[in-house]
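From the pipeline queue, job 12 of 40. The input is one protein chain; the requested action is below.

Action: predict structure.
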Amino acid sequence: MLFKILGSILVIFSSTMIGFTIAGFYKQRPRALRNFQIALSMLETEIDYGQSPLPEALNNVSKRCESSISMFLKRVRQLLLSLEGYTAGEAWEIALKEFKAQFPLNESDFEILAAFGKYLGSSDKDDQIRNLKLTLSQLKQQETLAIEERQKNEKLWKYLGVLSGLTVVLLLY
């Protein structure tokens, strides 16, 4: 009897944690998109008004943004300055792949960021600014969609986790 109770508690706890983990993705995604917008906005300012070279601009922005994005930008800078001779676009793409698991973003978010990286450092300042503004507007749209998804799905997954655990326990008895 004790094993049944412990097993039931374990099943309910496990399914609840799965539900809360999935709900956490919906909760964290708008914040991550906002943090990327802030970082790219600072990068735009560095390039446009500070007229900093890209490695210096990445370094300056990485000092002032959220930690996971800061590490990402430092990695881009490190790859850019490495002896392998990566272009800015290649450095951005490599770092994006390396950090993909650390950002709670979906595929369309990564496609926007990857598209931005393809043109990074490959044109003049005005084109870079246009590309940054386009990326910022796309990320803003994604943030709006992410907020809507969060409102719809966050509670749903929390309740679904708990209720599925209870359902499994009831079916087993």
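Job complete. The chain has a mean pLDDT of 90.
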